[in-house]
Amino acid sequence: MDVSDDGLFSEDVGKWAEEKHGLVSLYAKLFSTGMKDKWDERVYIELYAGSGHGKIRETSRIIAGSPLQALTLEHPFDKYIFCEMNPKALEALRARVRRTAPSANVAYIGGDCNQRVSEILNEIPAHSMGHRVLSLCFVDPYDIGIKFETLRTLSDRFIDFLILLALYMDANRNHENYIKEEAVKVDEFLGSRTWRDEWMASQQNGTPFPQFLAEEFSRSMGRLNYQIQPFYKMKPVKIAEMNVRLYRLALFSRSDRAYKFWDQVLKYSTPQTTFDFGGPLV
Prior knowledge:
Blueprint: E1 11-13, H1 16-35, E2 41-46, E3 53-56, E4 62-64, H2 66-71, E5 79-84, H3 87-100, E6 106-110, H4 117-123, E7 133-139, H5 148-154, E8 159-165, H6 167-172, H7 175-178, H8 185-190, H9 195-204, H10 209-222, E9 235-239, E10 244-252, H11 256-266
Parallel strand pairs: 1-3, 2-5, 2-7, 5-6, 7-8
Antiparallel strand pairs: 3-4, 8-10, 9-10
Helix pairs in contact: 1-11
């Protein structure tokens, strides 16, 4: 969804980001609409929220990010929680949210989500038998820097996760460094210190490192009682004109209904500019 330049800080993004935001926005729309009469409160969370605008490299185009698109859905969420490490981006996001959805209930948390997880958790309204709360959390890191312990902490609530797995953009490029015994990044990503043994066996079976990480991550989520997802159900995000893979977008839920929504998303593969996600953005 294209927007005009408002003079505030915006991240430079690749053209592929448009498809990513489109996929997330479509799922958020299905989730928010489908759950509005089944739960008392619906919460939308982003752990790497950004500034709300993205400048597509080598073009003059500016697109709305997933936070703003989530705010302008036909059936908006009841509360929004945005965490962002970059102070300039968070300040710009605040201004854009005030302009786009001034009456929305929004909480802002500055800093690394892995270090601010208790604050994020405290912003999620309490769930009870008389007030049922369901959350959707979009995790959009630049690399595999999301720590599994962060997801474990949040998973104590009724929460679904949409996670961008940087399997090619980061993990595959840095494979040689990450498999070293002293390296801890994959340990923290998977919540496991024994994954190297599994990798040795998978490597002998010809499994590529990105696929191995995706499947191991899915098994880790399974230990939190989320449904284990096969690799083919993780939507690839790539540079289309070069057919270069970057990420996989994966859904993790404890509900069969969520995967019915996700199956609809998997059918959607065109740029988000062809899809109407909600009201206008200015």
